Every structure is written in C-alpha cells, then in structure tokens.
Queue: 2 jobs
Job 1
Amino acid sequence: MQALLLLTVSLSVLFSVLAQTPHPCKAPPYLEGKLVVLFPEGHTTVFEQFAYDAVEQRIRVVASGKESTHNVFVDRLMFFRERFYYDINYHNQSCVKTPFSADFVPIEIPVDAHHKAQFVLGSLSAPAQGLLVNDWVGSVPKMKANYSMSFTEFGCIPITTLYNVEKMGHFLSSFFDIVIGLENPDIFIPPSFCTSAKLEQRKDGKVVDFFTSLL
Amino acid sequence: MQALLLLTVSLSVLFSVLAQTPHPCKAPPYLEGKLVVLFPEGHTTVFEQFAYDAVEQRIRVVASGKESTHNVFVDRLMFFRERFYYDINYHNQSCVKTPFSADFVPIEIPVDAHHKAQFVLGSLSAPAQGLLVNDWVGSVPKMKANYSMSFTEFGCIPITTLYNVEKMGHFLSSFFDIVIGLENPDIFIPPSFCTSAKLEQRKDGKVVDFFTSLL
C-alpha cells in the first residue's frame, strides 16, 4: 500500500515537472492564415495568404509584394511530395508547372529546439486580453540555418519565425488571422486549365529551396 | 407607437455600427510589465521592467541594455508632473535627482489616430490560442513624430508602439507580461537615501524628452 502511494506521489511529481516545461510541438495539420515575410536585408516584403496541409504536404500561397522596384504577384500551388508547383494566372487562364526539390518544412518547433522564454502578449489579468507564447531557438544544419520561433503555448499556433540562413540572410515571417482547418479544401485542386501544363524548368535558372519557393 | 419602434430600430442600427468600429482607447491607469525598446538605427536595445501610474503621472523603470559598446543599467523613478526624476543606485545607496520637462505620454491610442487594421495573433479557432489586436497610425505634431501602434481590442493593452521622430529616427517598443494594477504601490516611493538628493542638471547636457528619458 505504502509502495503504491510512493509510486503515485513520485509519478505525479514527475508529471507535474514535465507539465511545467514547455515542449516542442507541431501546429495543427490543416491551417489557413496570412503572413508578412520580410526577405533578407529588408529589400522585399511580401504579404501572403496561405492554406497549409501538412498531411499531403501541400501549400497554396497567394503572395503580393514589392521586390526592389517592381511589384510581385504570385498564386502558387505547391506539392512538396510530388516535387512540383503550379503558378496560376486566372486572368490569362494560364498555368506554369515547375519542378522543385525543396524539403517540406512543417509548421512546428523542431524536437531539438531550445526553450528560450515564455511570455504574455497583452495581459492575462482579464479574459481575451492576453496570449501565452513560447520562444524557441535552434539550428537546422541541413539548411545551414539558425532559427528563432514564437508559438502559442496552447494550440501550437505560429506567431513569428525568424530564419538566419548562411549566405542568404534573415527571413522573418509574422503570422496572423490563423484559422484551424480548411474552409475550402478545393484550394489544393489545380484549376482545369492547369491539367495540360507541362513541367518546365524556371527560366531564371534559380535554384528553389523552401525559403525562395515562396518568392 | 410606430415612431417609437422606428426610433428604437434606428438607434440600435446606429449603436451596432458604432460598436463595429474600433475606437481609440486608454490603457488601464495602473500597469506593470516589461518591454524591449529598440532605439534609432538599432544601435541600442534596452530591456525594461516598468510600473506605470497614469493618474499621478509616475513611471518607475529598471532598464538594462547595451549602448554601442558599453552596458547600460538604470533604475529610474520619474515624476512627470513634478518634472524631475531620481536615478537610484541601491548598491552605492546613492541617488541623483535631475530636472526634466518631458510631457507625460499616457499609454493610449490618441483620439485622432486612424484605424489601420484589425487582426488576430494566433488563432480564434479555440480558446486561449489567439488575441484580437488593432493597428493604429497617426502623428503628434508637437513631438514631430509619426506613430504606429498595436493594442488589444479588449482591455486596450499595448503590444507594440513605433514612433518615428523627426531628426531622431525610430523607437520601437514591444510590450509583454503586462499586469493590470500595481503589485506594490511602494515602487513609486523613493528610497530613504534619496530624500537628501538635490536637483542637479545632467552632466552630459542632454535635453531629455519622453523618448530619451528612458535611456
């Protein structure tokens, strides 16, 4: 009886300690939302609306912004598993299908990330006035990148991610208006005028990785 | 009877329209919290813990940071109405009392600010995962400054303020861990070794305004 009590007490102490420490987490597999991405050296700021499917590794992103002097507008449907993306132009009813080999980077805190801080945006003094957020740091050697990320404590929703990529610079993404789930799963089905598109290499010869694939 | 009904309907339509538009607001008069201030051109980042009393126009701020190559540590108790502040040094039990004439800038959205956007940090898809925030822009001609501010929709709690001051540059403040009320109102009472301090002009001759008073 005493042994059982001791075990129960030990386990509850262990669980309460584990529960106190924030753990790396994965965002929900289906998300929609918006983000503002600041590309290296602040030359380009892009406003994006996105739909995210971590199960099938698909991202649809409608991005608009300014790159140096010219405007950028991209409606891109990316299939990371199938390793190609469509650039869709409803105005011309045209579609460009491009191969790419970027790894899918799920919206998550990598398991080897280090917890930096927990803080409240706003205030927890009254309901609906504050948000509990964790800051994480780490590195992805394969990408030659260091990162710093803020995700909500509850729900593992991204707030900001900052990647510092070797020889490229800083990519700062600020997420907002995130909705869990997909309002319209059709968003991952290419429009009918895309079915005849053939795979074409990028004309600019750029090597596309996860970071530049959204540009 | 019909006239009364019409009046009721008109008023409820008017109120519902007014209720839909976010209005400039004042933060609660007593706050404690932390902020990170990025001073112009990113040369100085200061971490501050503050207590704020908008009724008596008092601010206590303990700031630490790095200015170019040297570390900065300040424990400052500011009386905006009385127009002086104490720099307190518990280690030496010393206190410097300095006159200043900066206007008190309450934590609020000025009444003539323009509403720019409403957005959600995180997600409102589930409880405790998101925070509704308003973005405001405007200018303070007296300070020769433009500003952009994010405050929570509920409670009017500051999230970020960005002031662009003519001939000075950008002051970016990010607030967090805000608590409504004062845990310890004693924080505005100077320590006993301050009572003998006499008013002294700043040795560096700097003109102190609201922005530089915290540096």
Job 2
Amino acid sequence: MQPDESRTVYRGTLFDVTLERWGDREREIVEHPGAVAVVAVDREGRVTFVRQLREAARGHLIELPAGACEAGEEPLATAKRELREECGFTGGDWTLLASFWTTPGFCRERMHVYLAEAVEEGDAEPDEGEDLELVRWRVDELESKLSELEDAKTIAGVLLYLRHRRSR
Amino acid sequence: MQPDESRTVYRGTLFDVTLERWGDREREIVEHPGAVAVVAVDREGRVTFVRQLREAARGHLIELPAGACEAGEEPLATAKRELREECGFTGGDWTLLASFWTTPGFCRERMHVYLAEAVEEGDAEPDEGEDLELVRWRVDELESKLSELEDAKTIAGVLLYLRHRRSR
C-alpha cells in the first residue's frame, strides 16, 4: 500500500515532513525511523525510568528508557544500545511486549516496547546534551505510581508489563 | 518554562513545525492543538472502535474514536463532539481516565482519554473524506483482542479502562 505521489516539504534535523497524494486525498506526514522503549527490571525487582526535561511538554517527564532507531538498526539492537547508554544496563532476558504506531494520524513512528529482565548494572553513557536522572521504582509500587506518568509509551509499557506478569 | 527563542520553520495544513532555542540547545517541535480519545461503552456492555485507513501506517488500524481539539475547544467538548460525529453516540457518564503526551520528544500533542459509559446510539456524521468502519467488542473480549491493536492511545486507553474496572 503506497501513495500515488510523495514529496518532501520540510527537511529538519530530527525529522522531515512528507506530503503524500492518495487518490484525491493529501496526507501530511512526519517521517520517523521508528523507536524503542524498554521496561528494564533488575535482579532486585526494580524498574528503572529516566526523568528528563521535555521541551515540547514544557517540563520534566518520567519515561521508560527509549530512543530512535539509527539507519539500518534493528529495533532490538536499538533497545539494547539505548538501555546501555541511558541506564548502563547490559545483559538481561529480552521479550517484545508490543509494537504500535505512536500517532498514526500524522506520523510514521512505530514504537517497539521490550521487557528486559534480570539486567546487569554498569556505567551509563548518555549522549551529549542529554540530562537524565534515573528513577527506580519497585515492581509492586508501579500500580500506585501510574498517576505520575504522563507519557504514552511509558503508560502503555507499564500496563503491558503488569498484564504480562499477571498472565505468567 | 518557556524557550529563549521560537520561530516557525514549516507551515502545514495539519500542523506547523517550530524551532525553539533553550539555552544552547535547539528543539524541533511539531505543533499540535491537543487531542482526545474515548472508550465508549454502550448499555449492552460493548466498546466501539473505528477501523480506518492510516496512510502513515500504510494500512488499516483499529482505534478508539478520537480527534484533535479545535481552537478554543475544551477537551471534554472535543470528546463528546468526536464521539457523536464518528459513532453517533450521545449522552453517557463521562470520566477522565488519563492525560498524557503522545510523543514528547518532538511533538506538543497532549492526549486526554475519556471513559463514556451508558452512551446512547444515534446516527454518525463522519467528516467528509473520513472512511470509518465501526467495530464493536464486548468488554469481556477486550483482553483477548489486545493483540489486534497497533495504536498507542488505543492500547493505553483499553488497558486503563480494564484497570479502572478492576478497581471498582
């Protein structure tokens, strides 16, 4: 399923915008390489989040460790790289919890949410300009912490993880 | 919390793109007026979804009824308008399930997810160019249908609703 015509109408640093013609409809689409988020559980039964300034939201948000896929990078490789860079975690037992479109009305971002269990601690290597604070919550605290979350992938990821736990 | 400088670098039909300077950092942001999604439960205990072509996703997706806020429109008013237009539902008992940012790394879309219970059936009035098919699932089917969902707000909304039901 492909458009009849497609042209780039904005070239940005983080994303481009494409104008597509589908029959008599035009669609304006934010291009995106896809992204990942990780529910990382350590051997002490804690989940690690990152707290950072999100300029678009005009404040700090608590989110799952996450990031965009680099060119040609498989989502699982992105997930392991981001978890190491942002939180310093390596190893772990990995499961794909879900894949979804974040905002399919206007953006081509497909998000893959992974569970990484029994991850091992190491040193984080945040990107220059990333100012991340790590926040750790015990698994049995997650239900009560949900109201502090204001990020879609994080709310979906935590709820998918709690459902996954109940189903085992 | 506001940027030091801000300028529009792309003016589109559906959205603009702003380049903001925050100290020595630049942020490229998709502007968005905010949006709503509705978990609508009828008196027969069924939840109604809309199935539509999402060009950005190159296929059809099953989603909660949803839409963007118009200028000056309160989110609850948007939710009631969209539910009437897309599904024909009126009335109902309304609860805010959650508000969150859909993609806070690059977009200013804040999403409000409502629960509307005991809605009343009427005639839908879809916007011109909207080709919506209504899909109805019983509440007790939702858990098993989750794997058919590939839209972030819909996955989050369904899981928040199931959690809300369990807590009553």
